[in-house]
Amino acid sequence: MEQAAPWLIVGLGNPGTQYAGNRHNVGFFIADLLAERTRVKFGRHRKAVADVAEARLGVGVDAPRLILVKPLTFMNLSGGPAAALSQFYKVPAEQIIAVHDELDIPYGQLRLKVGGGEGGHNGLRSMTKSLATKEYVRVRFGVGRPPGRQDPADFVLSDFSTAERKELEFLVDRAADAVEAVVKGGLAAAQQTYHTA
């Protein structure tokens, strides 16, 4: 019996301690939580510039396989590791999930979709170019618009505010739930659950 293709879950962020708490790194937070939940540890992959953890969502041979990815390139080059790993693990585009911050959604809200534009997000732009398709799943974590006249680029490269941090753990938990829901039950069902709030 041929094994089903795994799901490639790419948390988008920038490597390095100076970026660790940035809004732009929320994809890393969610990937880390998924690794924690499935009791796996990230390690450097030999075929891609990325930290990778292989997991199963649930128990038994039929439990979906997850390849959790944190690219070690900067955000604007995230696509290279994503494409290399999708080839290595033979993952079709519809089973690739990019998890990322989104300026056009209020803080903490989630939006799930396949395809569409990149909305100025350099990580998505790089993934679309490297994968040569837009038809992958996006789990978009709202970070809201910058206050006043702050440059959006500076805003996403700054840390969450004290007020935001009070809710962050709960919201990251919910985003990880949404990723699991896509894997287990498909995008449409996950959208119904997570677009209501």
UniProtKB/TrEMBL annotation:
It is an enzyme of class 3 (hydrolase). The keyword Secreted does not apply. Keywords: Cytoplasm, Hydrolase, RNA-binding, tRNA-binding. It catalyses: an N-acyl-L-alpha-aminoacyl-tRNA + H2O = an N-acyl-L-amino acid + a tRNA + H(+). Its EC number is 3.1.1.29. Its main location: cytoplasm. It holds the Pfam family Pept_tRNA_hydro. Hydrolyzes ribosome-free peptidyl-tRNAs (with 1 or more amino acids incorporated), which drop off the ribosome during protein synthesis, or as a result of ribosome stalling. Catalyzes the release of premature peptidyl moieties from peptidyl-tRNA molecules trapped in stalled 50S ribosomal subunits, and thus maintains levels of free tRNAs and 50S ribosomes. This is Peptidyl-tRNA hydrolase. One of its GO terms (cellular component) is cytoplasm. It is found in: Cytoplasm. The record marks 14 as: Discriminates between blocked and unblocked aminoacyl-tRNA. One of its GO terms (molecular function) is tRNA binding. SUPFAM superfamilies: Peptidyl-tRNA hydrolase-like. Belongs to the PTH family. Monomer. It comes from Catellatospora methionotrophica.
